[in-house]
Amino acid sequence: MVAPGLRLGAERLFEMPAVLERLSRSNSTSQAFAEVLRLPKQQLRKLLYPLQEVERFLAPDRRQDLHLRIFDPSPEDIARADKVFTATKGNRIDYVSSAVRIDHAPDLFRPEVVCFIGRSNVGKSSLIKALFSLAPEVEVRVSKKPGHTKKMNFFKVGKHFTVVDMPGYGYRAPEDFVDMVETYLKERRNLKRTFLLVDSVVGIQKTDNIAIEMCEEFALPYVIVLTKIDKSSKGHLLKQVLQIQKFVNTKTQGCFPQLFPVSAVTFSGIHLLRCFIASVTGNLD
Ligand code: GDP
Question: Which residues contact 1 (CB under 8 A, 6 or more apart)?
Answer without folding.
Answer: 70, 221, 256, 280
